[in-house]
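Researcher: Structure for this, please.
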Amino acid sequence: MKFFLAFCAPLAVSVALSATHLRAEAPDPGQIEISVGRLLEQGHYSRMKLDEKVSQRFLKNYLEGLDYNHLYFTQKDVDLFTLKFGNSLNNDVLLGNPDPAFTIFNIYKKRVEDRVAKIKELLAQKYDFTSDRSVEVNRQKAAWPKDDAEADLLWKDRVEGELLQEVLNKHAINPPAKVLTRRYDQVLRSLHEQTKEDIIKGFPTILAQTYDPHSEYMSKSELDNFQINMRLSLVGIGAVLNSEDGYAKIAELVPGGPASKDGRLKVGDRVAAVAQGDKDFVDSVDMKLDKVVEMIRGKKDTIVRLQVIPGNAADTSVRKIIEIKRDEIKLKEQEAKAEIIERPGPDGNPIRLGWVILPSFYADMEHTGAADAKSTTKDVLALINRLKQEHIQGLVMDLRHNGGGSLEEAVNLTGLFIKRGPVVQAKDSSGSIHVSKDRDPSVAWDGPLIVCTNRLSASASEIFAAALQDYNRAVIVGDSSTFGKGTVQTMLEIGRIMPFLGGGNNEAGALKLTIQKFYRIAGGSTQHKGVEADVHLPSLFDHQEIGESALKGPLPYDTVAPVDFDKWDRPLFKNDLRQRSGVRIAADPEFRYINEDLDILKKRLAENRVSLNEKARRAEIEEDKQRRDQREAAREKVKRPDAKTYVITLDNVKKPDLQLATYDKPDKKSADAKTGDSKPGDVKSADGKPGDSKPSDSKSSSETSAATALDDDAADDDAEATNRSERFDPIKTETLNILSDLIDLQRNPKTATASTAK
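Model: Predicted structure, token format:
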């Protein structure tokens, strides 16, 4: 049985998976409901019975899954649902009764249809944006409007806010009312595309997440996607699609993929029909994007034909037919990679520092043990061996934004930096504790080591960081703590457990089930608390809206007895590192900027409102712009550190020459072109990359679009700021400074302050 640890964020759907689009007859959704309910009762860590108490929470979560921002249902609706289903959903699930799902969804659908009709009436009105009113941005914790009259008032302000947002859009192409009309037409189109299977599938999905935030039901396509993200390869054409005006539109081509190599399919082209090999075309206009995706999927070396409207065609009746052979695509951007940073050391002499970037703990679980099976540990070992050949004096493992992955890889990777010994403890629902150990006495890197984390470092990342901290092997640098996910999941393919649902295949999908909690070898849990940094660096991610404690229904924190292990016998001088870093941070304008922005962010999150006054909003935008301009002017005067950076990938790790890194200025035009009118959730990724969605990201498309419109006064400026931060990363710079200090202190311990050599 394979265990893994990762965020519960929804995975992006891939166009180019390794599964045929031709399926056997779909399994009975009612039987899937029954199976998921029984597996949760019998297999979940909590062993919680699917009773009336769970039923009430399940109903609440289901309603919020549909109406995330409490915009469409009224309290009257909720009261009626509670009266009718609050104490009986558990029985409906265990009996495989889909009626509640249909009843609730159909009422939701009617509420959205009625609301969009009213929205279009509001869009026809004139607004001068001179009021002193404001509108609530995030209504996740707000009460549902008590009745239609209160909902009408809420939406009046909301639509005015969305219109003002478009008025303030300095890159607007269409009039605000037209943009919003298209947006809500898309909301309706997405709603009407929901099939009976889609509606019923939502039930076990929300039910699983009622047990804890990291359990979830995955459909077949979602399971395929999960496996792609773990093994970092897929079979397909290599294209990213989004939905626009009823068409599946090519948003991006994966470099090196079949479509990119073929050269005929272009970004902007729209797919009108899809055919398998020499079979007839199936019209895909106004088809749900997931269904188009499913038709384009296929096995290696099979042919898919696309009937395409060229993006540059003046006449939309023009069609071209493109035949593409599906092939395997390696997802290089999610592999481990490394850098060599050559810079002056504390004594002025040049030193070389290694930096390994690890986006996730990936593994090819289907081909474990095979020579060519994908493995985080194997890849990182290859990078470290090359870094050692280049005579690095210290190493950083960068786990920022690493949401986890394979438990086995977390244990094995830890083993590269310690002699044999325990790495993590795991307790099951019966209280039995299993200790995972590194049994290999060899050490790949025994020099100075830092692990760089942030609030988005979760699960397997936390096991790795916690073990090295407990062994006193590495200094943890970054946000005050990591995410705080201390649970272990396994993947149960329902068709294998319940053969009558799929003949042993994965047609019935899978249940990602929380079966254990993990604990540090020192006895504490990372659940809720995460791994606290030894040296804290200011960061915009370091706030309470990110982390396990911000999710619904997380399992509680607790402890177990520690196990015996031998700590690393070299001092890490943590107090000295904190003191030296603190002096630099206080004098560094970049960290001052981060602290200023963090204060602004916390203030805006607390206020949770934006003004409906155009003059006031423009003043805020101008204030933000002036602040950015002043910072950019100040940055231009700052002398860059005298350093060179060389990039090492798994493709060039054995090549004799080093590749010098280059940092280009962001292409603003390109960034704007990618933004357009698309909304979160509209893009279906053909490259299988994990999305940027948050662990709690379960918004419906209608609410996502509204929240997006109100939540950001300068999206393009933020995109530019993100590109800039990638070129000018103060956290990376300071982490390298801390590593240089660690090298210096371990080499010259007499320079340490008294009683600080820990």
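Researcher: Any notable elements?
Model: The longest strand covers residues 510-519. Residues 81 and 104 are 8 Å apart (CA to CA).
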